[in-house]
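Subject: two folds for Thursday's group meeting

Dear M.,

Sorry for the delay on this. The cluster queue was jammed most of the week, so I only got both jobs back this morning. I'm pasting them in the order they finished. Each block is the input sequence followed by the predicted structure tokens. Could you check whether the formatting survives your parser before we put anything on slides? The first protein is the one we discussed after the seminar.
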Amino acid sequence: ADEALYLMGEAQLAKKQPERAASTWQRLVESYPKSRFNVDAAMRAATLYGELDRPDDGRRLLERSNHASASAPQRARLFRMQADLARASGDWPAALYALALTRRDTSDATQLAELDAEIGELVDGRLREPDLDALARKLPHGPVSDRVNLELATRALARSDAAKARAALDRLPSQLSEADAATRDRLLARASDRAG
């Protein structure tokens, strides 16, 4: 039954019926969560929803997919698609969260550098401090979480709030990249100067 739905979606797409294909693949995702076609159907339907200017429908479907059973590269593609659909909806916090998950499942150095640039653009230019603060508590530990906490500390110090800066810096792990460690040390010194 699940394979029949998957093939029906392909046939509908071949007949230039993208809405019907997306709906059929959505039915597969919702009715057969353990299907080997589940993640692929979710991604194909979400792509169509994005093309049909319905990014929120695509995001909801991807969230319901069985991504835990997918391989790391497939999860990275799924989370990347979630980030793109969140951007299309103007949901910058959701985009950053999905990019953090994409980064976690990506191993290619070139792709990581591209992700880091996109993450930097969101953290530095798109996200407001309350959004960053909420994300800091739910992001998976790693470079994106570190970047968010360093930005929170920077913004807190810009308005002379040493206590908030120190709280953000205290959430950082002891082991950071060389550049992040240097930034943390510089911000800690500034926080100490402001506090004391």
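Second protein, same layout:
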Amino acid sequence: FNTPQLNRNVSYPSGSANQLTALANAGYFTTASIPAPSTLRALAPASDTTATLEHRARSYLAANCVSCHQPGGASLGNWDARIETPTANAGLINGPLIDNAGDAANRVIAPRDTAHSMLLTRISTRGARQMPPLASHELDAANIALISDWINAITVAPVITTQPAATSVTVGSSATFTVVASGVPAPAYQWRKDGN
């Protein structure tokens, strides 16, 4: 366990209390006091709709995948499940795969494309390719739905990948320009001359 996993309220016989505070009060930590739990990172349960969809999805991954999916971890995958790693740096969104299962369109997470999001496929499978690989015999329907919802909500800012080339034409002739842009959802664009 780690601090973000333990930083939550738990029901005890004496009432509800923050788990970190309760552990500190019971003498389980070597320091006399701990920082206020509200100042520490905390994971969010899938059902906590006060947290963002991304934070809830990343919390699930941090709790269930981080033991292998982090730098130096035992996994073959190259993505980082640690909650403190920003999503943009975690290798999740359009992350490459060691094994693309024979489909070049497959990614760790393919934005708005659950069919090509192998992380979702693996947590939705029981058997040889299941994730987590141990101690899991039943599908986690609530978190499969959470990850599906997150995948379907992901947007990727548009980026012009091929700029239009300069061209010269005589007055009154037409000019053709092309541009290539990427993004999710696919960007729409139009040409304007002098802002009109």
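Two things I noticed about the second structure. DSSP finds five helices and four strands in the chain. The mean pLDDT is 89.

Cheers,
T.
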